[in-house]
Inverse folding.
């Protein structure tokens, strides 16, 4: 095969990325920098230069429809001049002359990648992936070939992507880059100043200056969680064996299930633990509950847990009880707005264990309203994303918990004729 020209000219900031020797990479880049174009071209180059006759590369977006709408056109554009390629529109797949293959996936159906192998993968906005996608499916798919992985995105608070970036800064096995608009020169000064005026300071800092610290626009509990941090109520909150634990659940049908673990001491609320997973059955969560050292009082489930499944004819309450989960209570069927307001009041005096509740705390910080692009206004409903299950589980815990009255002594009745 002779020389092949791909119609791609890397920005200077990406030269070091394309020439990297590290196995893993994390790129934090501002909006409109061109990180998607750079990433897809890196995969194309790897596919056509990999000496293996069956090289496999994958571009993974949070949702399959995103991969199709945004990345697929780039993939076809930058490979159209290559000889003897085969484009499969239905599978979003491009096969190259040497046996290499590039395919696009959505993390919303990460099980579609189970059992595959990859030499190179790009994970776009990994903070929006289901929590199990990387550790249980994507990472194992790299193992036998020691495949490479690149995480790319723009900050949305201190979430999983922040953890990846923070690690990449000091780990010698990682390539790391943080590309702010004020440094790259991709957008001129006048455009950035206009963006700052129209977007507001927090959103500008997040989207163009790659700030993980900026406040999340439209966040329901942003003020309450910021106050919790400033007042040092996010820290070390140990389990007290003398106090029973109450759990609050949100049960996902096909995606994540979240569980909060709380202890109530008078008017003090202590959130001591958090657990979330996806793609597993109810028996998995009961096993997790039982394996912890806690003594339980009540397990609060959403009201739709009463609904019977067509396949089994049993409700999820009945299934959980058959698995040995006792003390189940059902949260009242309140409106989301009423539940959010109750949760706001609850969070103002709540303590969180920073380490065990790390993902859940960040989800509460980022849980936000949905933005109406057409109307340019906030919708009344919450945005459904990776934060939703954690926030819903907290709402069910708050609205479903019933403090138990403890009598410290005998009642004295003021009855006529009795002294």
């Amino acid at each position: 095969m002779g020389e092949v020209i791909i119609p791609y000219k890397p920005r200077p900031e990406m030269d070091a990325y394309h020439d990297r020797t590290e196995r893993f990479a994390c790129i934090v880049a501002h909006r409109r920098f061109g990180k998607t174009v750079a990433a897809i071209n890196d995969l194309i180059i790897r596919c056509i230069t990999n000496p293996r006759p069956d090289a496999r590369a994958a571009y993974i977006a949070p949702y399959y429809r995103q991969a199709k709408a945004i990345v697929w056109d780039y993939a076809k554009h930058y490979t159209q001049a290559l000889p003897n390629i085969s484009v499969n529109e239905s599978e979003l797949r491009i096969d190259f002359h040497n046996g290499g293959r590039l395919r696009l996936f959505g993390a919303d159906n990460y099980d579609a990648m189970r059992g595959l192998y990859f030499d190179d993968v790009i994970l776009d906005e990994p903070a929006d992936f289901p929590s199990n996608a990387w550790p249980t499916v994507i990472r194992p798919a790299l193992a036998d070939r020691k495949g490479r992985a690149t995480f790319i995105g723009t900050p949305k608070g201190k979430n999983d992507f922040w953890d990846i970036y923070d690690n990449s800064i000091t780990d010698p096995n990682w390539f790391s880059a943080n590309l702010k608009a004020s440094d790259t020169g991709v957008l001129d000064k006048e455009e950035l100043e206009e963006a700052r005026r129209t977007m507001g300071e927090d959103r500008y800092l997040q989207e163009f200056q790659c700030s993980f610290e900026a406040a999340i626009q439209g966040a329901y509990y942003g003020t309450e969680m910021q106050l919790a941090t400033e007042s040092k109520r996010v820290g070390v909150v140990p389990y007290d064996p003398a106090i029973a634990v109450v759990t609050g659940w949100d049960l996902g049908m096909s995606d994540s299930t979240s569980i909060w673990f709380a202890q109530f001491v008078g008017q003090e609320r202590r959130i001591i633990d958090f657990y979330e997973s996806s793609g597993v059955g109810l028996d998995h969560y009961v096993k997790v509950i039982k394996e912890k050292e806690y003594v339980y009082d009540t397990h609060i489930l959403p009201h739709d847990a009463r609904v019977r499944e067509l396949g089994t004819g049993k409700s999820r309450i009945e299934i959980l009880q058959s698995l040995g989960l006792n003390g189940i209570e059902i949260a009242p069927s309140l409106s989301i707005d009423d539940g959010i307001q109750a949760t706001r009041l609850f969070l103002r005096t709540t303590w969180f264990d920073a380490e065990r509740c790390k993902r859940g705390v960040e989800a509460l910080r980022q849980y936000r309203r949905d933005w109406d692009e057409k109307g340019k206004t906030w919708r009344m409903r919450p945005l459904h994303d990776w934060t939703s299950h954690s926030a819903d589980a907290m709402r069910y815990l708050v609205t479903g918990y019933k403090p138990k009255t403890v009598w410290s002594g005998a009642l004295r009745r003021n009855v006529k004729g009795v002294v």
Summary: The chain has two domains: 12-208, 222-400. Residues 407-419 have pLDDT under 50 and may be disordered. The first helix runs from residue 12 to 18. Residues 12-208 form a domain with the Rossmann fold fold (CATH 3.40.50.300).
